[in-house]
Amino acid sequence: MSCVGLFLKTVRVLTSHSLCCFCHVAALRFSGFLTPHKGVHPGYSCIQAFVGFEGTKAELGLPAHNIWYFPESYDIDKVAHDYLSLSAAEAAETTVPMMFLSFPSAKDPTYNERHPGKSAAILITLCQYDWFAQWEEERVKNRGEEYTALKMAFGRQMLQRLYDLYPQLEGKIEYLDVGTSVSQNYYVGYSHGEIYMLDHHRERFQPEATVMLRSDTLIPGLYLTGQDVMTCGISGVLLAGVICASAVLHRNFFFDLLCFLGKAAAKSFMGKKSDVEQQEKEKENREEVVGNGYSNGSVNEISKTG
Q1: Cα–Cα distance for residue pair 99/121, rounded to 1 Å
Q2: Which of 36, 51, 80, 208 is the most exposed place for a label (fewest CB within 10 A)?
């Protein structure tokens, strides 16, 4: 079973990491999985800014929840299309139109014990892989001054958006580094720096494309799982696991899960029903005792003596 996805960097890189990955890609190419439907292609890339601050969560007023920031327009598709149509140089001088931000240090109750007086944030926005593709074969952390200048320009644009929401953070930054689409390739092993592997556009979910995105393949014994089989995110991966297990064992585990949930719901209902019946019985006993002329104190004495 493989969850590495349909699109990976190269067989050369894969073989340096794992023979299993090499066999996976070779098998997929042989079976036609790497020349798929035109609607199946890698998703958008991302730029990530890693920020360190002087100050604690309380001092800086940092939230523990994630934030999706869309300040430009409610028409997110148009905003994203316009931004991603820019050249790298143009985009680096343009305020990012959307951004995800999170403060991991604010979520960790032990963070201040381990890193006193410090806080951290991660900022993420979309980008085109082509903006950094010319450096994809360069060594990590040694891609040259032009690459560094470009990625840090994007980082500064993302910081401006951060300051829009949290102006108190300006002047508190101690550390800033930026990861690009080629960084994503290096550390995760993707082919185009994609965030969620296959693109989630309408063509991907057409019958001609989805019939290919299956757990069972044309190669005997090779099964696919992960978000490329279903959709991105935790829920998609969980469902892909159920689909893959069903394919491997020739058993409908969705039906099994429904039966299990049905039994659990019935057991819970019967438990609640028993509780209600017990409460009704106790109420009747109390009414009967009171009806016979005993006081509350007498009831307690009766219960103690049996």
Answers
A1: 13
A2: 208
DSSP 8-state assignment for residue 74: S
What tokens does 277 get? 């019946």
Distance CA 42, CA 297 (A): 76
Select from 207, 235, 239 the least CA-distant residue to 225. 239
How is residue 96 written in tokens? Answer: 């990012």
Residue with tokens 């190269």: 10
pTM of the model as a whole: 0.69
CA distance 100 to 196: 14
pLDDT tens figures, 256-290 = 888 888 887 777 766 665 666 677 776 666 655 55
Read off the tokens for 214: 């299956």
pLDDT at 41 over 80: no
Predicted confidence (pLDDT) per residue in 82-100, tens digit: 999 999 999 999 989 999 9
Structure tokens at 10: 């190269």
| Distance between CA atoms of residues 7 and 43, nearest Å | 10
Q: How far apart are CA 190 and CA 193, in angstroms?
A: 6
